[in-house]
Amino acid sequence: MNQPQFDRLVERICSVTVTDPQTPLVDLGADSLRTIALLMAIEEEFEVELHPGVLADPAQASPAGLWRAVQEQRTARTGD
């Protein structure tokens, strides 16, 4: 998966349109329930565990920030 594909996942779960992956989810129009649903979907899809605190930082609570967090978790898990 790459950033554009991840953006489509965000769009599907949060019912938003990602025009810039750096834009915080709240600025894209995602409410808290959809944001939590996204976090759960990401954890299930990628078999990672993201700390809920990631959503408190607007830089991380964006499609790009969440994708980075997923990649970091996957790298840490595999040791790559």
From TrEMBL:
Keywords: Phosphopantetheine, Phosphoprotein
Highest taxon of source: Bacteria
Domain annotation Carrier: ranges: 1-74
Alphabetical list of InterPro entries matching this protein: ACP-like_sf (IPR036736), PP-bd_ACP (IPR009081), Ppantetheine_attach_site (IPR006162)
Region named Disordered: 58-80
Gene3D superfamilies to which the protein is assigned, alphabetical: ACP-like
Protein name: Acyl carrier protein
Phylogenetic lineage: Bacteria, Bacillati, Actinomycetota, Actinomycetes, Kitasatosporales
